[in-house]
């Protein structure tokens, strides 16, 4: 049986969506196929996103910025948008899929010293990590409960 496909969307597909993809794949790659894309891809993955993910042992250096169009016919089961403010142009994905919106501020807009900007990336990374690991844990628990119920019936 194939794993459910989760697509994480953001506008530029350069920071938040890649961090979320790496974290969810790390936490639940056995449960999901995980992808990320954007409605207006930046064409690169932000170097600071790569660096702060490496700090927690997750390598996203081979990720590429992709347009959501390439997933329109991919059989996506769940869409998660991670754009922050309501004013962001969060992409819309057509079709009958489960949708979540977990907004995070865009660390690429952080200002200050190099260390302050890096800390902004760390803060968003940690918020994303907490959210997506909780999602993975809840999904895993629900799946286990469903299996237990099925076993009890037979």
From TrEMBL:
SMART domains associated with the record: LMWPc (SM00226)
UniProt-listed SUPFAM superfamilies: Phosphotyrosine protein phosphatases I
EC number from the UniProt entry: 1.20.4.4
Keyword vocabulary terms for this entry: Arsenical resistance, Oxidoreductase
Broad class of enzyme this protein falls into: oxidoreductase
Molecular function GO labels: arsenate reductase (thioredoxin) activity
Domain Phosphotyrosine protein phosphatase I: 4-138
GO biological process: response to arsenic-containing substance
InterPro entries (UniProt xref): Ptyr_pPase (IPR023485), Ptyr_pPase_sf (IPR036196)
Protein's name according to its UniProt entry: Arsenate reductase ArsC
Organism: Rubellicoccus peritrichatus
């Amino acid at each position: 049986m194939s794993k459910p496909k989760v697509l994480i969307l953001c506008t530029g597909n350069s920071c938040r969506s890649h961090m979320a993809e790496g974290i969810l794949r790390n936490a639940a790659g056995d449960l999901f196929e995980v992808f990320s894309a954007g409605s207006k891809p930046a064409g690169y993955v932000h170097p600071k996103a790569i660096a702060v993910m490496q700090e927690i042992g997750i390598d996203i250096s081979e990720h590429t910025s992709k347009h959501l169009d390439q997933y329109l016919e991919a059989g996506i089961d769940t869409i998660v948008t991670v754009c922050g403010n309501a004013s962001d142009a969060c992409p819309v994905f057509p079709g009958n899929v489960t949708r979540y919106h977990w907004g995070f501020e865009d660390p690429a807009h952080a200002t200050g010293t190099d260390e302050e900007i890096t800390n902004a990336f760390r803060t968003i990374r940690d918020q994303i990590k907490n959210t997506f690991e909780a999602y993975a844990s809840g999904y895993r628990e629900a799946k286990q409960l469903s299996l237990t119920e099925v076993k009890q019936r037979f």
